[in-house]
Design brief:
This protein has 2 domains: 101 residues, no CATH class; 112 residues, Immunoglobulin-like (Sandwich), CATH 2.60.40.650. The chain is elongated and about 60 Å long. It is of the alpha+beta class.
Length: 235
């Protein structure tokens, strides 16, 4: 029986696109823990909701060549790595991890705030537009202006990479220089890029952003991804 009673500390990671363990189930268990711990909830428990992640982390290769696996879904492996580090520091050193993600449960659906400051957790929030909106319609060869606002929640790390995939091929061939932001710790930035499509069709350009707790752009560990995605119709 899942009672919500435990003696240690716990970090729960729930993926908002999880097709096997629905996000509302994480809310159900959080309520069990809250009923058991009361005012001590934040001393023992965290719930981090992860945007653009499914039940399994995506891999692309001969057995699964679909680009949607990397242009629509992120790998959450780095989030798991960071959660283990945070749990160890919490238990062994008394260092509290970043706060739980804020959310609303409405008719079984989980909704998170649109800004990193309000959402909290550990994942950057990426807001991408094409010609000022979530959808743009242009002619072949016409330039599209992409603008992304990127922000990391307080205490969750630093933006270390931003990569574009305009054609949706899953390879992210365009890499931005290290973004420039406000203050010594790069927790917020705006990324701009122009692009012209040379063939008609419907495209889903994506900006993938990476944050890392120590701000290390070279380490393969603890890399936390999120995506911004728009639709461009080329006539």
């Amino acid at each position: 029986m899942q009672t919500g009673r435990f003696a240690g500390k716990m970090i729960v990671i729930e993926n908002l696109l999880d097709e096997a363990a629905y996000p509302c189930q994480a809310d159900w268990y959080r309520r069990k823990v809250e009923a058991a711990l009361g005012s001590r909830l934040d001393d023992h428990y965290r719930l981090w909701l992860i945007d653009h992640a499914m039940h399994t982390t995506p891999t692309v290769g001969a057995d699964d060549p679909r680009p949607v696996r990397t242009t629509r879904v992120i790998s959450y492996q780095g989030i798991l790595q960071q959660a283990i580090r945070d749990l160890a520091d919490w238990v062994e050193k008394g260092v509290a991890p970043p706060p739980s993600t804020e959310y609303e449960l409405i008719e079984g659906q989980v909704f998170v705030p649109p800004t990193a400051k309000a959402r909290r957790g550990i994942q950057a929030v990426v807001s991408l537009t094409a010609n000022g909106g979530s959808r743009a319609e242009v002619a072949v060869g016409e330039t599209v202006e992409f603008v992304a606002s990127v922000e990391v929640p307080p205490g969750a790390g630093t933006i270390v990479a931003a990569e574009w995939d305009f054609l949706g091929a899953g390879d992210y061939p365009v890499t931005e220089p290290k973004p420039q932001g406000e203050g010594r710790v790069l927790s917020r930035t705006v990324v701009r890029r122009s692009y012209a499509f040379d063939a008609p069709g419907t495209y889903f350009p994506v900006l993938r952003v990476t944050s890392q707790r120590q701000g290390d752009p070279d380490t393969p560990y603890g890399r936390v991804f999120n995506l911004g995605r728009v639709r461009v119709v080329v006539r």
